[in-house]
Each structure stands twice: as C-alpha cells, then as structure tokens.
Amino acid sequence: MSTWVGIEIDGLSVEDYQNHHSNWFFKRSDRVRENCEKDECGRLPDEAFIGFRASAASIRRRMTLMGYDLTACKQHFNENLLAVIEAAEWILNREGERRHAESGSLSVRGDAYRQFLNAVKDTSLQDWLDALPEAVSLSKSMSRFSDFSGMPYWCETSAVPLVNAMLSDIPLYTEYSHTGLFNFPCNDSSYFQVALLECCSDDVACELNIAPLIQSGWEDDFRDLEEIQRQETEPHRFSRLSLEETIRLSGTQAENLSLQRMCYSSIITSMEAYLGDILKREIFDRPAVKELFVASYKPFKEQSFSLNNLYKALSEIDDEIEKALNTLSLHNIGTAKSLFYSTLMTKFPEKSLRIIGPAVQIRHDIVHRNGRNTKGEALSIDYESVQALANVVLQFMQNVDAQILDGLIAESCID
C-alpha cells in the first residue's frame, strides 16, 4: 500500500514523495521527533512528527547557496512564461480554427484559455510574487475544481485576474511541463519554492513529516533522537529490562541459594551483553569510531601486510572487526575499560569497578566451579548480595550509557 508524504512551506505542500523521502534542503540538525508515544499496538499517534523542520530564512539561504536565488528564479520564470504564452496561444488558434470551420463562437474551453492568457500576458515575476499570497490563502479555503479530464477550468474567486489564473486548471500541451504549482511558469519546482519563500516571513516553518513512512515500514525511525529522548540506548534498554527481570526473579524465592547464585551470574551476563552490543553497534554505525577501534585494538597493531595487499585488506576489514568483537571477553573489566576509552572515549566509573571486578570472578566460580572458589569453599551468595550487585551494575550501565548518549547528541548536531 502506498504512503505519501510531502514538504510543506507554511502548511502548503510543495513537493510529494511516495514510499520514500528526499531530504530536500534540510540538514541533519533539522531533524525533529515529537509526540511519538506509541500505543499498546505499537502505533504512533496521529499527531506524531518525525522528520525535518527549519525556518524559511534557513531554507532560503541554503537554496541561494545552491544557485536557487531570486535572480535565477526571474530568468527561469521569464523563459517559461514565454513558453506558457506560446502554448496558450497555440491552443486558442487551434480552437479558433475549429470553431471557424463550424461557424460557431469561441467555446467555453477557448474562453478559459483566453482569460488565462489575458491574465498572465505581460506579467513580471514581481506581479506573481504580489499575487501569490492571496492565491495561497484562497486555495486553503476553497475546493478547487478538477475532474482529471484535461478540460480547462477558469476560477472566478478573486478580483485580481492573475490570482484567478493561479487558481484555475489550464492544461498546456507542450513537450514537457512549463508550469508548477499555481500555474507558476517553471519546469523546476525549486523555482516555485524560491518564489513562495520570498513571500514568507523568516520564521515561517518548512517541514517534512516522515512519520507515516515509518509507521508503514517504508523507512526507519530516527533512532538516535528516539534514544536521546528516552535517555537510554536500545542496547541499554534491553539489558536493563533483563536485569530487572532477574531482580524480580531473585525476590520470588529469597531463601533459595541456588536461585540466588543463578541470578547473581545473570546480572554480570546482562552487563556483558550491554557492553558488547553497544560497542559493536557504535563501531559499525559510526566510521570515526570504527577507525578508532582499528587504530587502538592491540591485535590489529601487530598485523602487517605488503602494499600490494592493501585493497584486499580494506575489503575484508569489516569481517576482521566482526571476528575480533565476537571473540572479546567483555566481562574482563580491564579489557573492556581499555577498549571503551580508546574507541568510544568513555570512562568506566572507578567506584563501580571496585565492586564489579570481584563480582566477575565470583560469577566465574558460579559458572565453572558450581559456586565454589579455587579452594573448594562454597560461595555465600544470598538475596541481599544479588540486590546489592544489581544496583551497582544498573548504576554502572547508566553511567556508561549516558556517555554514549552524549556522543549521539553531539553527532546529531553535525551535518
């Protein structure tokens, strides 16, 4: 099923997309995510806005820097106005010849073209700029006639003939289109947008809402903005929920020491899963982070190859990184601490490490020695021990995740 979205300038749709979108003249820093609390079925509310928003002043400046300024618009307008007039005159001549042969008067069809031609002939770009605000205002409150038959329709809504010409349906038969919205003479929609922006105040909003595309599955949400708003990354959310389930499970049988040992071990597993997931995601999603990992990962430093194998090595780099990450033991706190600092510029809180370090060894004894240490002594892991470790690990992961989010905030402002 098709899904349509469009770019709007002051609420007027000026460019439409089907099942996809173009960023137009928007920048990454223009991204917005509002009213996006999903219902129990996972659907976004009707008022959800996920997309781009910038002021008319910003878009006007960017278009000018791309060559779409008022001077270029005027030249383009003049060239296409001539083509529009020629097309309308050709149709009128054909209509006149046909009526002359039939000894009849000019038809209603021909009358529409005559009125249109009279309205647009000898007009300037400034005339259109002066008339455009009224035409836009009227278009928002009127039901424009269009039966898709290709028949012309002359609108008699305004006292200004040019405004009526903008609101009328006047098909022109040329090799390619010479009019845009409001019959504006152009074959590049960007020039109509230049004209419209010229009529707007600087603070008018230019928007593109892609929430319908996201809801329909055509495009992905702005994950980084979603995580920033939620104040946690998706890997952190997954591990946090798992850890909270472990805490609840521990409380169901507080006196069951076997269960408490299992829960204690699961807490470290949740932490390790978070560290692995977030490290892998950031490395493969952000080229700068990938470069830092390759430059700082010790086993990579020890590798060497001849220059003639350079391109082969580059083509295989992602596979090599994947293999390296899959073999990392991130419950080794020393390894994890070093990697996160050199790759993600993220520091592990020392206060948490003083508790997590020994807990990792205890987890090793639980998993590999059935809850006994190297001396064969049974470990004392009770409900209180599980709750205490869970709180420390939660605080540790939140601290690390806040630093990751801080990096996302910085990146979201870079174009």
What report would you give on this structure?
- With 415 residues, this protein is α+β, with helices and mostly antiparallel strands.
- The protein has two domains: 1-221, no CATH class; 233-412, no CATH class.
- It is built from 17 helices and five strands.
- It has helices at 56-65, 70-101, 108-120, 125-141, 161-167, 189-198, 211-215, 223-230, 234-252, 257-285, 287-296, 298-301, 310-315, 317-327, 333-344, 350-368, 383-412, and strands at residues 4-9, 12-18, 31-34, 49-55, 205-209.
- Helix 2 (70-101) crosses helix 6.
- It starts with a strand and ends with a helix.
- The mean pLDDT is 88.
From the N-terminal CA to the C-terminal CA, the straight-line distance is 33 Å
Q: Helix tally? A: 17
How many domains make up the coordinates?
Answer: 2
Q: How large is the share of residues in beta strands?
A: 5-15%
How many DSSP E strands? Answer: 5
Summary tags:
415 residues; alpha+beta; 2 domains; five-stranded antiparallel sheet; 58% helix
How do you describe this structure in short?
The chain is of the alpha+beta class and 415 residues long. 58% of the residues lie in helices and 7% in strands. The chain folds into 2 domains: 1-221, no CATH class; 233-412, no CATH class.
